[in-house]
Amino acid sequence: MDFDQTYKGPYCPLTQIALAGSNAMNLKQLSEILGLSQTTVSRALNGYPEVAERTRLRVQHAAQKHNYQPNIGAQRLARGRSMTIGHVIPLSTQHEMVNPVFADFIAGAGERYSACGYDMKLTIVDDQNEEDIYRDLKSRGSVDGIIVHGPLMNDPRIPLLQELDLPFVVHGRASDIETPYCWVDVNNASAFQRAGEFLLSLGHRRIGLINGLEHMDFAHRRRAGLVAALEAAGITPNPDYLHAGEMTEINGHNAMKAMLALDTPPTAVVVASFIAALGVRRALDEAGLRMARDVSVITFDDDLSYLRNGDSIPIFTATRSSVRQAGRLSADLLISHIENPTAAPEHKLLEADLIIGSSTGPVPQE
Amino acid sequence: MDFDQTYKGPYCPLTQIALAGSNAMNLKQLSEILGLSQTTVSRALNGYPEVAERTRLRVQHAAQKHNYQPNIGAQRLARGRSMTIGHVIPLSTQHEMVNPVFADFIAGAGERYSACGYDMKLTIVDDQNEEDIYRDLKSRGSVDGIIVHGPLMNDPRIPLLQELDLPFVVHGRASDIETPYCWVDVNNASAFQRAGEFLLSLGHRRIGLINGLEHMDFAHRRRAGLVAALEAAGITPNPDYLHAGEMTEINGHNAMKAMLALDTPPTAVVVASFIAALGVRRALDEAGLRMARDVSVITFDDDLSYLRNGDSIPIFTATRSSVRQAGRLSADLLISHIENPTAAPEHKLLEADLIIGSSTGPVPQE
DNA sequence: CGCGCCATTCAAAGCGCTTTGGATCTGTTT
DNA sequence: AAACAGATCCAAAGCGCTTTGAATGGCGCG
Description:
DNA-binding transcription factor activity (chains A, B); 6-stranded mixed beta sheet; homodimer; elongated; 6-stranded parallel beta sheet; DNA-binding; 2 domains; alpha/beta; Peripla_BP_I (chains A, B); Rossmann fold; 12 helices; HTH_LacI (chains A, B); Lambda_DNA-bd_dom_sf (chains A, B); 39% helix; HTH-type transcriptional regulator AglR (chains A, B)
C-alpha cells in the first residue's frame, strides 16, 4: 500500500469543495411524508414480506412521485456490500495495447450487471502493482467480486484472489493451476484442432499459425490444438510456420509476409484474431496472391460488434465464438457465486462454431 | 424511475447472503492500537495540518503495517461524494455496435482517474431510458461527474445534465447547442478540410466521402470540412460520392464497392474511420485496383492501440488524433470541474495531424 | 373476559468514516 | 501573574441506510 502521491484526501484549502448538501430526497423525508417509520418504508421498497400490500403500494407510489432513490453510499455501508463488480485492466507501458476484445466483453457483462442491480467498476492499472490493486479492492470493500481478464498460463492473480477470499470469475483459464476456480472459456484447443483438420481435409499439409503471445493461456491452447491436428496427420510442425505476437493488424501482416518469403511457404494459415487476419490479407494482396486460391486462411472470430465477418457470406472461414456472450455468462456466473458464496466453483466451456467462408479452398496444385 | 423487475433488493430468503462481517481493519481498531482518537487518525491520513508531524508518521506506519484502507462506502457517505465518475454506454438492440474507439478512450481516462483517486463506473444501457439512468445517477449520488460519449448534433443529454446540475464533459460537441458546457473534441472540420485540400493539391477533383452516421456530431463536422474544401475549389460535391453509415469494415467495403460501380467513380476517398478504411482497401483489392496508384485514400485515425497505422511508414495517409489522449484530457477537465464547481465551462479543441502514408498519390491520367 | 397469535409497524442501534466544536497543554504577551 | 494565542488532540454528532428487538392492534378461542 502506498499513499498516493497525487491524491491526498479531502483536505484541499485552495479549492474548498462545497460538500454537496445532497438536495435529493432521502428516506427520512419520504417516511415523514408518508407518516411511516423509516423501517417500514425501507422494507416496503426492498420487498420484505412483513409489510402490508396496501402500504407497500402507497410507499412505492410516493417514492416514484418524489423521485426517491436510496443513496448508494449509505446502502453500501449499511449492507456491508458494494453491489459492484470490478474489472482490472492492466496496461503496462511496454505492452500498452488495450485488448480489442475488451469492449464487447464489457458490453455483454454490463447488460447482466444492470439487470441484476450491480455496478461495474473499471480500474486501469498502469504499473506492476496489480497485486496491490486487488488487496485494496478487498480491504476497502470496493467490490463484491472480480472478473479476471487475459489469464496467463500460471496466473498469480488466481491464488491471490483465492487467498483474499474475493469471489472471481476468470475469462479464460490458467492451464498450470490445479485448484478449482470459476471460469468461462472457449474451447480454444478444439477450435484450432478443427480448423487444422478442416485444412488437412482440403489437402493442405504446409499449415502455418499466427498466434497471440503464447504465455497467454488462450494462445497456448490454440497452438496445442492446431499442433494436435497436424501430428495426428503425421505432420511435424515446421517452426518457420509458427508465429506468436501481439494480435495487431501489423503483426499479422509481418508474420504472413515473413512466411511468404520462405522457400516453401505454407499453403494455409490459421490466425488467432480477426484483426491479425486483416493484416494477413494485406500481406497476401501485396504479394499478388488471393486468399483461398493461393493461400487458405482461417481466423478466430470473436464476433466483435464492429468487426463482423461479412454480412451474408463470411469473408473468412473462421472459428467463431461471441465474446459478448462470454461476458454475459461470466457476469451471471460471478453474480451467482457472490450471492451464494459457499457453492463449489463452476465453469463453462463454450465450443466455437466453424464457419465456412471464402478464405479457404483446396490446396493449390504445385 | 421503475423498480427493476429482476432485482428486488436485499430480501432473498433462498440465498441468504451472509452479510460479510468485514474482517478488514477499520478506523476504530487502528485508533485503539495507536492510542489515539479516530479523529486524529483520520486527519493524519487525510493530510490535515492540525496533526503533529511525528504523530502523522506514526499513524501512517501503523496504517501500512496493519493494512488499513478506509472503507469506501463509509467514506462516500460521510463525505457526501462518491469519488466516482460515470460513463454511460448506450447500446440499443438495433444499433448494437460497441464503439471501437471506446476502449482506448477509457484507457486514457482511467489512467487519470487512478492518479487522482477517482473510480470509474461504467453503465451499459440497452433501452431507451437513458434519461432515467442519468437521473438515477444523480439522485442516488452514484457519481460525482459524467463523461458523455458520442454526442448527437442536438443532444438531449446536455440540457438534461445541466438541469440536473451534475458536472459533465462531452467527448465531442453538439453543434446545435448554444449554452456553454465542457467538452474535449478534435477539430473534425479542419481535419477533413485539410484532407480534402491535400487531395485537391494532388490533382483529384472527384473526391468521395465514407462517413459515420451523420446525426452524430463528429460525422456532420467532418462532412462539412470536406465539403468546404471542395467548394472552395469550385467543386460541387456529387451526392453519389457521399456515403454515411455505421463505421464498420463491411460498410466501408460496401460504400467503396458502390462507388466503384459508378460510371465515373471517384479517384480519391476520405474515410471517417480506420476500420472502414480497411473495408475500402478490400473493395479496391477485389476490383483489382491499388491504393494510391488507382484510388487515393485518406482515413481518420484515432490512433487505437490495437490498430496502428503501420510501424514505420504509415499504411494510410491519415488525419490522426489520439483518442486515448482525448480520454486523458476529458478526465482531467472533468475532475477539475468537479473539484471547482463554480468555474466557467472550459473546452479543448485538438488539431489532428495530417500524416502522409502510402495510400495517396497524384490523380491517375485518364 | 383474558389469553395468545398473527400481521404490522416502529424506535433505536449500528455500518465506518468525516467533521464540528471544544478541551488541553505549551509558550508568549501585557 | 493573568490573559491569550497556537498547536494538538478528542468526544460526539452526523451522513442515509438496514436491521434488530420490541410494541401495537385486531382477532379467534377457551
